[in-house]
Specification:
With 142 residues, this protein is α/β, with parallel strands linked by helices. It is 38% helix and 20% strand. It has a four-stranded mixed β-sheet.
Length: 142
């Protein structure tokens, strides 16, 4: 992305950003109720962040699934985030997903730096082996 395009991306919202990566297990162990709960948790995450006037301007979310590893959603602000409906597939290559998540975070931080946008320490959340995605309100200090 060119510097000019990066600056346009941040022109309407110059707030410092907080990149959030959701690493989500979509392997066979998530079949049935667990994948339903995971999908509900993603929707709840969007609702909660959207209701917080500070977080809604600062949080940018990306989703990476594993089973297989896939970037489902690149970083977007919460108002542009449409929670995907995830389906169960494959095995559980969590290490590869973590590496992709870290690479995405580093790339996003470089985008912020190049555009002169301040940012907070990135947050990474993961669900694994049938555990429901449980997220509280995201609170960011100024």
């Amino acid at each position: 992305m060119s510097l000019e395009l990066e600056n346009v991306e941040f022109a309407d919202n110059p707030e410092p950003r907080c990149p959030v990566v959701l690493l989500l297990d979509t392997s066979g162990s998530m079949s049935g109720l667990p994948i339903q709960q995971l999908n509900a948790g993603i929707a709840t995450f969007k609702e909660e962040v959207s209701q917080d006037s500070v977080a809604s301007l600062r949080v940018e979310v990306a989703i990476i699934t594993f089973g297989p590893v896939q970037l489902v959603q690149d970083f977007v602000t919460i108002d542009q985030f449409n929670p995907p409906y995830l389906n169960v597939t494959g095995a559980t290559p969590m290490g590869e997903a973590i590496q992709l998540g870290l690479n995405q975070v580093e790339s996003r931080k470089a985008t912020y730096r190049n555009a002169g946008v301040q940012y907070y320490q990135p947050w990474v959340f993961s669900s694994l082996m049938g555990n429901q995605l449980i997220l509280g309100k995201v609170q960011l200090s100024s």
